[in-house]
Amino acid sequence: MTDLTDLTIAEARDKLAAREISARDLTKAAIDAMEGARALNAFVTETPDRALAMADEADKRLASGDAQPMTGIPVAVKDLFCTKDVRTTAGSHMLEPFTPPYESTVTANLWANGAVMIGKANMDEFAMGSSNESSYFGAVKNPWRLGDTDLVPGGSSGGSVAAIAARIAQGATGSDTGGSIRQPAAFTGTVGLKPTYGRCSRYGMVAFASSLDQAGPLTRTVRDSAIMLGAMAGYDAKDSTSVDTPIPDYEKALTGDIRGLKIGIPKEYHSDDTPKEIEALWQQGKEWLREAGAEIVDISLPHTRFALPTYYIVAPAEASSNLARYDGVRYGHRATLEKGDDLNEMYEATRAEGFGAEVIRRIMIGTYVLSAGYYDAYYLKAQKLRTLIADDFHKAYEKVDVILTPTTPNPAFAVGAKLDPIAMYYNDVFTVPASLAGLPGISVPAGLSSDGLPLGLQILGRAFDEETVLKVADVMEQAAGFTARPGVWWK
Amino acid sequence: MSVDKATVKRIANLARFRIEDERLEPLAGELNNILDWIEQLSQVDTDGVKPMTSVVDHALHWRADEVTDGGKRDAILSNAPASEFGFFAVPKVIE
Question: Which residues of chain A have pLDDT under 70?
Fold first, then answer.
């Protein structure tokens, strides 16, 4: 039955609809694959019993003819989407004991569509990381290896992408604050879509940086990404920043016809530090799109190089506010107190024990940049830079329809290789600018490095124009013909 | 701008972290590395630029000002590290 796990969402949907396969068999295959891949550490919590119950419900829906596109499709859920009665940790010791009494809107939408949850995927602690090494529950291993060397899957949605690349789940939810969907997708040869800010509800997602956080799908193909986004997105009264705009049929956007579309190539994304093979792949991407009838246009996004430092003011500032809620009173971890410890000592001991080093570092930075006397120099300055960065994109989109860039400046690296925080932050150098501007972006696997590791190209679009992003991504995916897969070593 | 041990201690207090004295020096170093790197933003002239307050231009929904949810005391308390008599329980704060 292992070949069932090879099916894409689109293929599985069609076979389920034709009753060639059952949701139960598809789910059983996913559970077997999950249990056989524990060496990857992709899941914090496995939910096989719940998965089979959901699969049986899906089979009933399929039999009664009221199936939706995701009905019966096995999905891994990043462990920052609250799932009712299923522990939700955000990769942190702080939330190790937390079992939400409610469901996030994105997952509720998926279940209403008939999707099947097989488990909660590992992630960087509170989504702060680019390697999945900051998880309290241990690093996730990339299914791709370099000889015998274990590589990181990227982050923060590291468990989600590992589950897709290792052929465990057909789809996975991710969240992207500065690149946490697109960067791990590039590291694992999978497709990762960050929608426009406001496209998916943030209700029930453990918050990191509220003005940047956005949920999106991780899948094996662009078509699957289109199908899954349609089942996740939508206005939600419980999130005032979700936008009430119609959800198109994204799959219909995949016409294969990009003739006349204008593709922007931002000169600031060229760097002497970028490996030649990534520059070459980017050139190749341009050629593929040109051959398909698109027009290549050189553009400038002048403030690009300030995006990363801007992000590392805005995101920690918001994180320091959001994570103030972890006080050991209402939920989560509470430190064991000494006799006579007062409330303040409880807060301080709880927070020192509950958070890992990177989370503490970012809360400290955020607290500092928001503190009296420094707010204007740091936070206000960053908010102004954010305006300039967004304006760069607005001006570019007067001339072009989408923008093509590499997704990451390097392929996956070895576990433990990047110890300096700023070196780690540079993983997101190509993904952060669009995050600050709230724009949609997708990473598509486009080729292999000289070491045989996957590399991704990124397509960015206008706000709420995921359709054009998906359309171009689909054409590029066809042209790239990426079929490489990691050797199975984890069973 | 560079942070010293006293500043780290002050920030840790604001953020409610217990930090051992021997960690203050290394943490000051880590924070200074990041702050020095962020410092490059001062090169950019932002006079007259409006700070971003909302990344997507859209009007907020209106709704009637009425209670739509509630009555979930037990569900809310179900994750509390300590609760008593239907309340969150914390160390004594009044002598």
Answer: 1-2
Mean pLDDT computed over every residue of chain B: 93
State whether residue A89 is helix, strand or coil. coil
Q: Supply the DSSP string of A153-184, one letter for each residue.
A: --SSSHHHHHHHHTTS-SEEEEEESSSTTHHH
Distances (CA, A) of A371 to A9, A61, A378, B5: 48, 55, 10, 16
Taking CA atoms, A221 is separated from A30, A54, A122, A420, in Å, by 18, 24, 22, 34
Classify residue A23 as exposed, middle or buried by CB count within 10 Å of its CB (0-12, 13-18, 19+).
buried
Residue B1: pLDDT band by 50, 70, 90 thresholds?
low
What are phi and psi for residue A259, nearest 5 degrees? -60, 130
The interface predicted TM-score (ipTM) is: 0.95
Chain A CA closest to residue B69: A238
User: How far is residue A127's CA from residue A150's CA, in Å, rounded to a whole number?
Assistant: 21
Contact A59/A15 with Cβ under 8 angstroms? no
List of residues 6+ apart from B70 with CB closer than 8 A: none
Lookup: tokens for A60: 């009933």
Where b means 16+ CB within 10 Å and e means fewer, A468-488 reads bbbbbbbbbbebbebeeebee
Query: What chain A residue is nearest to B50 in terms of C-alpha separation?
Result: A384
Place B59 in a pLDDT band, splitting at 50, 70 and 90.
Answer: confident
Structure confidence at residue B82 as a pLDDT band (50, 70, 90): very high
Do A337 and B91 count as a contact with CB atoms less than 8 A apart? yes
Distances (CA, A) of A406 to A137, A198, A227, A422: 31, 25, 24, 20
Q: A320 and B17 in contact by Cβ < 8 A?
A: no
Q: How far apart are CA A162 and CA A167, in angstroms?
A: 8
Tell me if residue A78 is catalytic: yes
Partner-chain residue, chosen from A101, A313, A378, that has the shortest CB–CB distance to B78: A101
Q: Which residue among A180, A201, A225, A320 is the active-site one?
A: A180
Cis bond leading into A156, ω under 30°?
Answer: yes
Chain A residues in contact with B53 by the CB 8 A cut-off are 383
CA distance A264 to chain B (A): 22
Q: Which domains, and CATH codes, for chain A? A: 2-260+401-480 (3.90.1300.10), 305-384 (no CATH)
pLDDT in tens, A136-178: 999 999 999 999 999 999 999 999 999 999 999 999 999 999 9
Instruction: Bin A114: left if φ > 0, else alpha if -120 < ψ < 50, else beta.
Output: left
pLDDT tens figures, A382-397: 999 999 999 999 999 9
Structure tokens at B88: 């969150």
Cβ-based contacts of B52 with chain A (< 8 Å): 383-384, 386-387, 390
Question: Taking CB atoms and an 8 Å cutoff, what residues of chain B touch A380?
Answer: 51
Subunit contact B3:A368, Cβ cutoff 8 A? yes
β-pair partners for B44: none
Question: A300: Cβ–Cβ under 8 A, 6 or more apart, which residues?
Answer: A266, A267, A268, A392, A396
SS3 assignment, position A77: strand
Q: Which residues pair with A218 in a beta bridge?
A: A172, A192
